[in-house]
Amino acid sequence: MFPLAEKDKSIARLLFSTGTCPRCIFRFCGVDFHAPYRLPYKDLLRELENFLKTEDDDLSLEAAKPPLKKIRLQDEETQIDDQSQNGGEMIAIVKDENVIPEKPYLNACNICLGILQEFCEKKFIKKVCQKVESSGYEFTNLVFSVSFPPQLSVREHAAWLLVKQEMGKQGLSLGRDDIVQLKEAYKWISHPLFSEELGVPVDGKSLFEVSVIFAHPETDEDCHFLSTSCPDCFKPAKNKQSVFTRMAVVKALDKIKDDDFRKKFPCPPNLPKAFCSAVEIQCAHGAVFVAGRYNKYSRNLPQTPWIIDGERKLESSVEELISSQLLTVFKAESFNFSSSGREDVDVRTLGNGRPFAVELVNPRRVQFTSQDIKELQQKINISSDKIQVRDLQLVTREAIGHMKEGEEEKTKTYSALVWTDKAIQKKDIEFLDDLKDLQINQKTPLRVLHRRPLAIRVRIIHTMETHYIDEHHFRLHLKTQAGTYIKEFVHGDFGRTKPNIGSLMNGTADILELDVESVDVDWPPALDN
Amino acid sequence: MAAEAGGASAAAPSLVDRYFTRWYKADVKGKPCEDHCILQHSNRICVITLAESHPLLQNGKTIKSINYQISANCSRLQNKVSGKFKRGAQFLTELAPLCRISCSDGEEYTVSSCVRGRLMEVNENILDKPSILQEKPSTEGYIAVVLPKFEESKSITEGLLTQKEYEEIVVKRVNNRPETS
């Protein structure tokens, strides 16, 4: 059923004569249900022409500028009349007037520049879907984002002023909200076409995004007058990009007064010389997160790649050994590795391991069963004896928050091999076992002072347990607050950590070996490994 | 970390040996034997200390006081550093004085920076207990911590002596000394 009624005729007629396409006419007449927009363009055109045709309309329609004669192919007679009445004004007439040509949109709409003409129809959507399918992404739904050239807002504004004026003559008002937004109508039409073609629903929350960017060669031309009327809306262009961004144009249109606008830009908007073109069709998948816990068994492995002046100082790293496998399997572009704190190159991580999370950026594969993940975990564990992972699982973005919390708030336990300069007996170290919640003050260790601010950190050593080895060695187990520098607590860092094991024992101590025994975070959830 | 080892003496490399390179400046400001030892960390940070041959570290010297007020307007104790880039630090040249040390025998010694860079901190622990300076001159008894400019990290040691060169100088001094009975 044709959605326009008698009351819409004058507006429809006015817009049609200026070169507006049927769907834009619907929008300005407030047609706010989807069905009419989804009919094929050809049919809409035909129905619109029928709707607008009355006996004496033929003549007045012909008189109106500008000529859009190509699409009015049904009326042979009137066309012959056209010629005599409008002299040379006409664009060349197609001779076989009885046939509606294959390409009904011979002129770009003066408001949407083709967006609601060919660019929302099956043929174009199919083309986009072909690109999506060939890109190799795995997805169960999609979100479609589209970007239009800024001057569409200008043309829309011009059309609105025109229609507002016309309705004013009838004693009616027309607010911006009474008009259906171009983007909305576009989505009403395109979403079902995408779903049909790709076999998945369109969902605003989907992680898989298909984006199309439209551009038009006359953008700067059409928007130029705004820079003189509202210069403060436009910042100087970065690189070679146009200064007329969508946001800036919308802002300027809000500011500019109606009469000022009408002076500088044709109302109704003129016929464009070209259609829009889709300059970019892209797809991308939002990041997925994989978490787990890792053990580190090497005393020669850095957390992150150790490269100075382009030269790699130590082979591999914790993050590469874990993430490179994930990168491959998820077919992702890149990764970001984070963990609940970290250990030095020469420190092992024992016990349950340290929580970590890997963000896989723009992954092409996202469907994994828990069995798949288990196998992936085994694969990582077989690939290296320097690290091992457990509890590998897919998690959400809140994983990163858990990492931070673990790093900053949770206690850790350690085992250190301590050397003393003075000869010691068992009884000389027993007192350390009795110290509970010992407060220490640590100035930023010299070994990190080049990249950290100078500060004093107050930390708590919750408990200690000693195991005598010989006159100059003992093993020290300790449970400490997050962020405690253990090595510095043992050797004192030039007396800048006070108290320290050396000062507590009235001598000099040094640390020969350090292991992380536990990171007291119960996240990610333990799995039946 | 150091490899496992037994024994009291430095069988295993000490903290300083593991992370620092020792550089020396002899007869600083022309004063005989007032030798300084600069410990340079692999991250370019320098710890200014007294070398073993410095008069203050010889037997019989008692330190009366240590003063970081090096001029009417400048006290090293007022050095304030903020942020990762250590803004606000007092900038030191090679000859900049760090502190003045007075002894019970009336002698006064000035300790100089020996390297260019931003002053991170001076050792306040030795103010309370000056004897630490003499007991552990290479660790707890350090004088100051200086952060050279990134571009100058290598060049600052150009004017300094290696450990070997310093030891040769010390040997020469002993040989040149007139015999005492």
From TrEMBL, chain A:
<dbReference type="GO" id="GO:0031053">
    <property type="term" value="P:primary miRNA processing"/>
</dbReference>
<dbReference type="Pfam" id="PF21237">
    <property type="entry name" value="Pus10_N_euk"/>
</dbReference>
<dbReference type="InterPro" id="IPR048742">
    <property type="entry name" value="Pus10_N_euk"/>
</dbReference>
<dbReference type="GO" id="GO:0046872">
    <property type="term" value="F:metal ion binding"/>
</dbReference>
<dbReference type="GO" id="GO:0005829">
    <property type="term" value="C:cytosol"/>
</dbReference>
<keyword id="KW-0539">Nucleus</keyword>
<dbReference type="InterPro" id="IPR039894">
    <property type="entry name" value="Pus10-like"/>
</dbReference>
<keyword id="KW-0862">Zinc</keyword>
<comment type="function">
    <text>Protein with different functions depending on its subcellular location: involved in miRNA processing in the nucleus and acts as a tRNA pseudouridylate synthase in the cytoplasm. In the cytoplasm, acts as a pseudouridylate synthase by catalyzing synthesis of pseudouridine(54) and pseudouridine(55) from uracil-54 and uracil-55, respectively, in the psi GC loop of a subset of tRNAs. tRNA pseudouridylate synthase activity is enhanced by the presence of 1-methyladenosine at position 53-61 of tRNAs. Does not show tRNA pseudouridylate synthase activity in the nucleus.</text>
</comment>
<dbReference type="GO" id="GO:0031119">
    <property type="term" value="P:tRNA pseudouridine synthesis"/>
</dbReference>
<feature type="domain" description="Pus10-like C-terminal">
    <location>
        <begin position="289"/>
        <end position="520"/>
    </location>
</feature>
<dbReference type="GO" id="GO:0160148">
    <property type="term" value="F:tRNA pseudouridine(55) synthase activity"/>
</dbReference>
<keyword id="KW-0479">Metal-binding</keyword>
<keyword id="KW-0175">Coiled coil</keyword>
<dbReference type="GO" id="GO:0005634">
    <property type="term" value="C:nucleus"/>
</dbReference>
<dbReference type="Pfam" id="PF21238">
    <property type="entry name" value="Pus10_C"/>
</dbReference>
<keyword id="KW-0819">tRNA processing</keyword>
<keyword id="KW-0496">Mitochondrion</keyword>
<dbReference type="InterPro" id="IPR048741">
    <property type="entry name" value="Pus10-like_C"/>
</dbReference>
<dbReference type="InterPro" id="IPR020103">
    <property type="entry name" value="PsdUridine_synth_cat_dom_sf"/>
</dbReference>
<keyword id="KW-0413">Isomerase</keyword>
<feature type="domain" description="Pus10 N-terminal eukaryotes">
    <location>
        <begin position="109"/>
        <end position="283"/>
    </location>
</feature>
Automatic annotation (TrEMBL), chain B:
<dbReference type="GO" id="GO:0016607">
    <property type="term" value="C:nuclear speck"/>
</dbReference>
<protein>
    <recommendedName>
        <fullName>Protein Abitram</fullName>
    </recommendedName>
</protein>
<dbReference type="InterPro" id="IPR033753">
    <property type="entry name" value="GCV_H/Fam206"/>
</dbReference>
<dbReference type="GO" id="GO:0051489">
    <property type="term" value="P:regulation of filopodium assembly"/>
</dbReference>
<dbReference type="GO" id="GO:0030027">
    <property type="term" value="C:lamellipodium"/>
</dbReference>
<dbReference type="GO" id="GO:0048813">
    <property type="term" value="P:dendrite morphogenesis"/>
</dbReference>
<dbReference type="GO" id="GO:0051015">
    <property type="term" value="F:actin filament binding"/>
</dbReference>
<dbReference type="InterPro" id="IPR011053">
    <property type="entry name" value="Single_hybrid_motif"/>
</dbReference>
<comment type="subunit">
    <text>Interacts with F-actin. Interacts with G-actin.</text>
</comment>
<dbReference type="GO" id="GO:0032433">
    <property type="term" value="C:filopodium tip"/>
</dbReference>
<dbReference type="GO" id="GO:0030426">
    <property type="term" value="C:growth cone"/>
</dbReference>
<keyword id="KW-0539">Nucleus</keyword>
<dbReference type="GO" id="GO:0003785">
    <property type="term" value="F:actin monomer binding"/>
</dbReference>
<dbReference type="Pfam" id="PF01597">
    <property type="entry name" value="GCV_H"/>
</dbReference>
<keyword id="KW-0966">Cell projection</keyword>
<dbReference type="GO" id="GO:0030833">
    <property type="term" value="P:regulation of actin filament polymerization"/>
</dbReference>
<comment type="similarity">
    <text>Belongs to the ABITRAM family.</text>
</comment>
<dbReference type="GO" id="GO:0030425">
    <property type="term" value="C:dendrite"/>
</dbReference>
<dbReference type="InterPro" id="IPR039169">
    <property type="entry name" value="Abitram"/>
</dbReference>
